[in-house]
Specification:
Strand content: over 45%
Helix content: under 10%
Structural class: mainly beta
Distance between the termini: 37 Å
Number of helices: 0
Shape: globular
Order of helices and strands: EEEEEEEEEEEEEEEE
Number of strands: 16
Largest sheet: 8 strands, mixed
Radius of gyration: 16 Å
Length: 213
């Protein structure tokens, strides 16, 4: 099947890191934020992943995050890992959003951004009812630009009834710094009426911030 193609990122996107340099990103086993949450779906457990730079036929150099399918998992359990850059990525000024390119596997995994604000409060794109449009979900195959608003000043709002970010009161205080990217994948995904095997392999490239034009 030929992979679908999606719209390019907004003109206000500025890449902070290509994610393609060997050793620039690593897994952080101490960051288990996605596992420490309310007992609601999706259930999450730490997975075993192979994280390595690869050369993609469409996007050239990028970072591959592939689940190593060891042991057995129930279909409703998602597996997660936390990726951290060699140096936290500071945003210039007041960005309105954050994003990166993702080559998806249609497995209904998820990308979770983690930032630190001027008050040293850590925020994540998590919470109840925070992403009704599923902007962070990996419900696609091929390359797609995945982005999310940092506060409620963005022109194209993510219209969800819950808080966009959890971590502190109100919204993040600028300036902000990207600390980590949490990656969640599934071994199986719902295909109309039944669960089917999912590749559980994502590729990431060009993470950065969005600014008003």
């Amino acid at each position: 099947m030929k992979a679908r193609r999606y719209a390019p990122p907004p003109r206000g996107f500025r890449a902070s890191d290509s994610m393609a340099e060997p050793g620039a990103w690593r897994e952080d086993p101490a960051n288990n934020a996605l596992e420490e949450r309310d007992p609601e779906l999706p259930y999450r457990q730490r997975g075993t992943f192979a994280v390595r730079p690869v050369r993609d036929k469409d996007k050239c150099d990028c970072l591959e995050v592939a689940l190593v399918k060891t042991g057995k998992r129930e279909p409703l359990i998602s597996e997660v890992t936390c990726l951290v850059p060699r140096t936290p990525l500071a945003a210039a000024g007041r960005p309105v959003g954050i994003g990166l390119w993702v080559r998806g596997d249609s497995g209904w995994g998820k990308i979770v951004f983690e930032i630190e604000d001027a008050n040293r409060t850590v925020w994540r794109t998590e919470g109840r009812w925070h992403d009704w449009p599923a902007d962070l979900a990996i419900h696609f195959d091929g390359w797609r630009f995945v982005s999310y608003p940092i506060d409620h000043d963005e022109e194209a709002l993510n219209l969800s009834p819950g808080r966009h970010w959890i971590g502190g009161k109100g919204v993040p205080v600028f300036p902000v710094t990207l600390r980590a990217v949490h990656v969640m994948v599934n071994r199986q995904a719902l295909d109309v009426t039944e669960m089917r095997e999912a590749p559980a392999v994502l590729r990431l490239k060009d993470i950065g911030f969005l600014y008003e034009q």
